[in-house]
Design goal:
mainly beta; 7-stranded mixed β-sheet; 4% helix; 43% strand; flat; WD_repeat_EMAP; CFA20_dom; repeat; WD repeat
Amino acid sequence: MAKVWQHPYVNVFKHLKVEEWKRSTKEGDVTALMDKALKGTVYRISGAVPASNYLQLPKTSTQSLGLTGHYLYILFKPAPAKYFVVHLDVATEDNQVVRISFSNLFKEFKSTATWLQFPFICGAAKGSVYESTAKMSKRDLVGLAPSHVRWTCLALNLRYILSLYLNRKYSHLKSVKLCANLLVKNIFTSDLLFDPGVTFPEAQQSRPASHGISPMPREMAFPVPKGESWHDLYDYIRFPSDGSKMPFDSIQKGTSNPPAFASTEDGPAGQLTKQRPLSKPVRDRVSLVQQITSPKEMARQSPLLAKSIPKIPRTASEPLPTARLVDRACRREGPQARGDSCIPVAPADDGGIHVYAHRNGEVTIHAVRVESDEVRSGLGRHGCNLLGPLLLHHCFRLLPDPILQLKKVIGFGGCSTKWALWAANGSVVVYPCHALIIAIALDSGRQRFFAGHTDKVAALAFNGNNTLLASAQMGPLSVMRVWDFPSGECLGMFKTGMHSVSCLSFSYSGGILCGTGKDRHGKTVVVVWNTVQVTRGGEAVMLAKAHTDVDIQTLKIAFFDDTRMVSCGRDNVRLWRVRSGALRSCPVNLGEYRALEFTDLDFEAGHSTDREPEDRTLFVCSRSGHVLEIDYKAVAVRNARRLLPPETRHGHRREKQTFHSGPGIALNGICLSPSFCATASEDGYLRLWPLDFSEVFLEAGAPDNLKVLCTTATGNVGCLDIQSKDYCTIMRSHMDSVLGFSVDGSQKQLVTVSQDNTIRVWNMESMQQAMGKAFYSLLYEFSASEETPVAVAFQPSQPVLACGFETGVVRTISLAASRLLEEHKLVSGSNTKRVQLWSVAAVQELRVKGSGARSSSVLLEQEMTLDGTVVSAAFEDSADMGIVGTTAGTLWYINWTDNTSIRLISGHKNKVNEVVFSPQESHCATCGEDGSVRVWALASLELVVQFQSCLCLAWSPATPSVSGGESQRIVAGYSDGTIRMFSLSRTEMELKMHPHAVAVTALGFSADGEIILSGGKDGLVAVSSPRTGMTIRVLTDHRSSPINVIHCTRKQRAELGIEGSDLWLAASADRRVSIWVSDWMKDRCELIDWLSFPAPTGPEVPNPLPPSLAAFCPWDTTTVAYVGFGLQKEILFYSLQQKQVIEKIPLPYFATSLSLSPAAARIAVGFRERVLRLVDRTAGTEQDYRGHDDVVGLCRFTPSGKRLFTASYNEILIWEVQSR
């Protein structure tokens, strides 16, 4: 753990007082000089021999700097046309000293257990000839530094380097040795990641591009003239880095500067943020025997697998019935990520799989069980009731919402359709379906599910006795899981270090796992893991990793030796071995067969006691039909055959065709038993051959119960029983996205339509019987080769279905006759916001004539126009009544009999940014990121009017001109810097002003409504008149930091000893609050106080940062309440009269929203942890409410204080605040 004095950073030269040379040393030509460009002192280190001219910190090698910062920053400039060398000695947690060196003298990366050497590639100055040359050749200038080299800020993540390249844990920086030839300004260490391109306001806002990144401190900054760009003058290099590099494992400036590493834990101590491609020397690891026998650390609990969810201690309140202004079907749209629900659940012990989806597309699986259906309540006297008839959502079960228990899955295929494995002595088949792994019992058809992956499963592998199952998922950060197959428990999860995984192989013992795939540069990579400790609660450990230029289609561990592997691919067959911690390979001499595309391989089966274990024959198949027999021990081709189609095969004689013979059978797979060989081919045939391949052989002599499992490119899993010669399909699947489905309740049938242009009808209950086994039955399949079906529905009383196509055609199909009944060209009503009712005469005729119906008349009976494109609909059997959902976030009740439509639910589809109220609480207005401002009637919660979207809102207070009536004006701030005023009575825009050059982030009215105060993203506060549309003045005190809050209140004229009728404040993202007194009639606006709240230093920074929020206390307007990212999680109360903080209320988390009740001394605080806390300041009590599905981003008491509105992403919850 870093020492406190080293935060936020250490200026090493200043700390050691380099200019005195008492705690540092110099040798050779080392001089101090003034650099005109940097306007400060730098040190020049020159000399023909770098080892004889250097600056060393600290003075002797026996001393240690003891600097624990993860990042080392070196501000230096290589000398033109010269070489330089830098040595860094770092200590690991096990007291091992590792030297990290980098130099433009090094031509390639080299590595030992105690020394890492990185080539440094010098970049050229912008606009120079060298830069142009580098761009044209698509490479940097390797070797000597160019003549126009620039000053460079090099940021090295020392902890990540040790973790990634040597699998060691970083402790501290021991010493630094800077050798000729270079100029150096300074050296810094820190636990923070600094970036010169990130400004302070951007870091405070925690934009996605700057997560975990801080602006460069003044001491580290290079001077930048006004109007110039930092990156045009200097180089900024992070290592390890993201950009494309040449060669690999070199230190150089990338083409772009994305955040290359976050401040989260790396390496063995934590999850790696990103995997880096490693060159050959990096793969030098300790021996295989040491890895297998040495003890390992205990595994960390996987964050993606929740075996149980702990209960949350309950206070005086519980989850309650909820009124939500939301279309629940749409509420997870949008780019905002959201986490899991923290509603408590009971521990899982029923084996059920419960699934719910994140908004960001990830799926988390929880095994949970519902204890009771009882509705829980129990409100305190001062608690909040959720109110409203809009959507009554009873939390009968304390589970994430929505919740489903998975029963059956129809479908097959993850990243590909090549993976299906036998288990349980041939009685169970295991295969993937998207992110799930399914084990189906062949005798009963019962399915077990292995859930946990968040993307398509890319590969599967069993150990020898089928007790351990390994699985990998696709994606840039591919994740591997190891399962205990009998119990279905995930034993461990780890990152693969590959961009994508294509093949896995488990050793027979289960102690070694090998995988192959591609790194992020598209280069083939092979990785070997030790999995011995996984079954004992430990974790998988990478033994070796190798990059190769050869193609690999299949990779298998030899069943007789865990340290040996074989692979095949285009133009190659290779033998691999792990020895002395390194993974090495040698090619098989293929001779005339070297240009074949090899697809699969298998070892001969059986064992003879008079043969050595490695004296085996390896069979390799190819797309040209060739099957090579390779002597594994001699690493040579023993025999070659070519399998030809039946019409070209020469009787029953042995194949001895030349390489250039006619087209062979394109082979995709091969599998051997002691007596036979099975092949899977491109022509769709599964063939069984004798081991001499003399003929296709399925006749007598096959051992009992010998079966062959195969998969097809069309999404089928099949099984061939050799003894009975029966073939059956275990599972079928669509080959593209399923676009629609319908269930026939009476017949227990399911119809699906897919992007693969097929319509399939499945039997959901009964099982197809074949080979004495039970499988899911596909009853019908229809294909539309040139059209895509997009919607489908069963006819309620007849075996007829209607299918709609993307062309607007609707076809009715008779299942009884298996034929097309009618085709109708209809208007596509959903795209025009219309829902339409059609009368199809053929349907009526079916009831009388059955399949002999011939009528083709279609009549549009009724039509209704809704507020958005129709995306879903469900009607009763008679189609008289139904529910329709639209893209506007609304649910409509449709009654064709009465020709009426009633909007049941209306709400925002995306995040709600603001909620404001009319002075007398008759209405409220909301704005969201879905592009709308909505005004609601509070009595009925009905939508009254809707305007175009904005970023912030304010409701005009009541003015004398309204004659006691309620104000009907809303002012809205927009991203283009404009402010627009809307009249609700006329439902039109009255005024548009443009006081800001950037987005408006906060709004407020003066107490009399005659002035509009607006804050911008750039920190400027504008004072504007709604009468004239003119901007009166602009305040620049918060410049460069976005304004979060503007709050205004009335003031007694002599209060605080200052004349003025308005008291208002502005709070900005940099934790500063300004308090002002104004008299707008006299054009007076005076700053009376300035509050600045410190932030903690160190690496533990929330991401994103909590907002800085402030408000005047309604019970004492001379007191300001403040919450934000500070030294403590608390509410601070600052007295404007006493000029100090007079009270602190501790909080469990940093606040994300704040509201103070106008009616009583009550405070509502929302948190990112989806918790709402109500604090009664008078009684000294507090209560927590846990009914939100996301961050509580808004809290707003109504003017009377009787209701509290809270917003959680796109949901608005309305609470009734009970009086004492």
